[in-house]
Specification:
- This protein is mainly α and about 350 residues long.
- Helices cover about 80% and strands about 0% of the residues.
- It has 13 helices and no strands.
- The longest helix has about 35 residues, at about 95-130.
- The chain is globular and about 60 Å long.
Amino acid sequence: MKGVIKVKKKKEADLGKDSLGPLLLKLALPAILAQIINVLYNMVDRMYIGHIPKVGPSALTGVGVTMPVIMAISAFAALVSMGGAPRASIMLGRGEHPKAEKILGNCTVMLVIMAIILTAVFLIWGEPILMVFGASEATIGYALDYMRIYALGTIFVQLALGLNAFINAQGYAKIGMITVAIGALCNIVLDPIFIFSMSMGVKGAALATIISQAISSIFVVYFLTSKRSGLRIKLDNLKLDFQVILPCLALGLSPFIMQFTESVISVCLILHYKYVRYRVGSMTILTSVMQFSMLPLQGLTQGAQPIISFNYGAENIDRVKRAFKLLFKKSHYLIQCSYGQ
């Protein structure tokens, strides 16, 4: 037992005592790398689709129409995780470990419930939703081919995205990065096999994506049930308790709205270019490129979140203020750099 505790202390950042500058860097860098890896593999995914013989541009446009749906699915994962993970960190700061684990268990159940509902919605009403979102007669076939397979893997997406936040909330930023990297590498390897070698086209791209997300989600669940994790998923905590889950959903409502409105904006752009065949495909590529500008800021906030939440729970308000000021300064510096100032 002593050996296990020693290993955990070496792996886990001390959110309450480590120097704030190096600690933020230690947590933010893996988060930034994870974001970069995620965007890169999405770009590679679309690059493969765009090079499908004869139908590449149309296929890319069809997959582009599914982007708002995929963003909406991610927003529901954020609704649970971006509210649950900070609350778990707060409870850890208070020394209320059982409550933190109950939050993790309830959020796990809620992610599964949302995945089931979203899967049913997109399998039953996928075609009319995609038509409303801007699909045309020329692209609906490719959009449906991708969406129907992707919808079947919604549970893997929800668990991989949602539960990864609880790994980062403990200070295991490198492990959180590895979970993203595993999925990205699997997707990059599987894409050409399914799309070209097996001649599955768009369906192959969707299948590669959900298999990759399944592998990531298995790794996340394995870690959160292992002795290496400070917070563990336990059967006793998998019973939904509204007094536990509702505050998590309330706290996660803001990031949910932010991500969901991005989906709405994408729909508006797609509808604007709906009848211009190649512009939607171009917009799909440019959206991935534009995401790079936000990566450092997103990484910084992900790195700062467990520090601020943990110390807020520990009532170490001075450290919370100093962490926030440091985050503000670093964010301001990154914004200035992005504008070349």
